[in-house]
């Protein structure tokens, strides 16, 4: 598939009035959490993702100096755009600025949600292969009352059908741009972009959001954000290892590191037999004490037959994410005489990074021969060994 251009718009042009009730002068998106301004964290979360083509911040006209003081210098961070008087108007300004480039996809993110998990962002992008829009949501956990006056209950809603909307909200650029343009001509105000897409008749998917991806809205939200970023949550580093072997059989190429490499053999296995991704998946699962790949994807289960091993890797990444952790680095060594691996290493790092939503600098792929010794030396199969280092909330 053709690589997609994915632009990100971060709306940061609000006044943050509800958050400034504690007397703070700085608008919420420029206040620090864990020693770093909220907006800087949000921007960095997207710049860290290798599949993001560009990031555009939409800022308030009065905040140009504050924005400049963030000190960003990155060729994928485009010049900031001045926003409008509502979130909807600010998003439209961002879309207009991107129109000349016409990216394939656009992700629209609130600056006020500085915790943007790579896994969630990746899930939104992936859903756009099947839907015209996608957003992360969380099931509503409280019982929801409807009231006409805020004093007396008029009705109780069926919460089974209710979900809270988060960002980033992703769309195909042309479709959301024209929907936003049309929406700007009517009197109704929309509180999120997914609602504009729904109004325009687009099909919008929901993917699992993250509790920590809440919107900093009120003063007390800073304490919560500080607990996430400020080190109040004690983290510890865990290490896992993975090892896998697959034998050769007649074929036309091997899947290694998520890349198909032409060869006069293929690797035999229940899935696509990608020995490198299997070792990496086991290393991640090992680091978080979640068993091994066979526990999650039993070979006896026919649904995994011929499956792309990126599915297994993504699952392991998702478990890390759900536990509030993050992958620090991965290292895999592939042992074989042939095919030659080195030229494919950059593509493998891209695929692994995209599957896990982590930057390629966190991923090492190495290859060696076994000097014609043993079964790899006799070219009977390929071995892969991996290690994963993962930062997780302390369990004690
Ligand atoms: N005219 C506006 C209003 C909001 N936003 C952005 O939209 C996001 C979600 O809005 P919200 O949290 O409601 O922010 P504010 O409008 O700043 O908050 P408040 O209503 O308390 O003033 C924020 O990142 C905010 O900066 C924006 O870009 N332009
Ligand atoms: C986009 C949003 O964050 C999704 O929950 C929300 O709709 C923004 O609303 P607000 O009115 O700007 O607070």
Automatic annotation (TrEMBL):
Signal peptide: none annotated. Its cofactor is a divalent metal cation. The keyword Lyase applies. Residues 238-390 form the 2-C-methyl-D-erythritol 2,4-cyclodiphosphate synthase domain. Its EC number is 2.7.7.60, 4.6.1.12. Pfam families: IspD, YgbB. Keywords: Isoprene biosynthesis, Lyase, Metal-binding, Multifunctional enzyme, Nucleotidyltransferase, Transferase. Residues 1-237 are annotated as: 2-C-methyl-D-erythritol 4-phosphate cytidylyltransferase. A divalent metal cation binds at residues 244, 246, 278. Residues 238-396 are annotated as: 2-C-methyl-D-erythritol 2,4-cyclodiphosphate synthase. The record marks 18, 28, 270, 369 as: Transition state stabilizer. This is Bifunctional enzyme IspD/IspF. It comes from Devosia psychrophila. The gene is ispDF.
């Amino acid at each position: 598939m053709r690589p997609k251009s994915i632009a990100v718009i971060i709306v940061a042009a609000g006044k943050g009035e509800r958050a400034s009730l504690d007397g703070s002068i700085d608008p919420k998106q420029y206040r620090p959490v864990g020693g770093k301004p909220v907006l800087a964290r949000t921007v960095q979360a997207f710049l860290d993702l290798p599949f993001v083509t560009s990031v555009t911040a939409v800022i308030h006209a009065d905040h140009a100096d504050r924005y400049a003081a963030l000190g960003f210098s990155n060729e994928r961070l485009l010049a900031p755009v001045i926003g409008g008087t509502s979130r909807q108007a600010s998003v439209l300004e961002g879309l207009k600025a991107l129109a000349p480039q016409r990216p394939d996809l656009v992700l629209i993110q609130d600056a006020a949600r500085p915790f943007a998990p790579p896994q969630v962002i990746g899930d939104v992008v992936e859903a756009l292969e099947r839907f015209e829009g996608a957003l992360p949501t969380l099931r509503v956990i409280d019982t929801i009352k409807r009231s006409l006056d805020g004093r007396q209950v008029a009705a109780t809603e069926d919460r089974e059908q209710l979900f809270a909307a988060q960002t980033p909200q992703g769309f195909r650029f042309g479709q959301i741009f024209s929907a936003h343009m049309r929406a700007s001509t009517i009197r109704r105000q929309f509180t999120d972009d997914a609602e504009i897409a729904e109004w325009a008749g687009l099909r919008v998917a929901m993917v699992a959001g993250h509790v920590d991806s809440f919107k900093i809205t009120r003063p007390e939200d800073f304490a919560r954000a500080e607990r996430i970023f400020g080190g109040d949550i004690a983290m510890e580093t865990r290490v896992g290892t993975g090892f896998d072997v697959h034998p050769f059989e007649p074929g036309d190429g091997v899947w290694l590191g998520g890349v198909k490499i032409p060869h006069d053999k293929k690797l035999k296995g229940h899935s696509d037999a990608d020995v490198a991704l299997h070792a990496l998946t086991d290393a991640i699962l090992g680091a978080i004490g979640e068993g091994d790949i066979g526990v999650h994807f039993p070979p006896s289960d026919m649904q995994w037959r011929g499956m792309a091993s990126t599915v297994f890797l993504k699952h392991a990444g998702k478990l890390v994410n759900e536990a509030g952790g993050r992958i620090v680095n991965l290292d895999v060594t592939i042992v074989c005489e042939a095919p030659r691996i080195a030229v494919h290493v950059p593509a493998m790092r891209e695929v692994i990074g995209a599957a896990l939503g982590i930057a390629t600098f966190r991923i090492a792929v190495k290859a060696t021969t076994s000097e014609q010794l043993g079964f790899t030396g006799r070219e009977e199969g390929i071995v892969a060994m991996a290690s994963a280092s993962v930062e997780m909330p302390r369990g004690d």
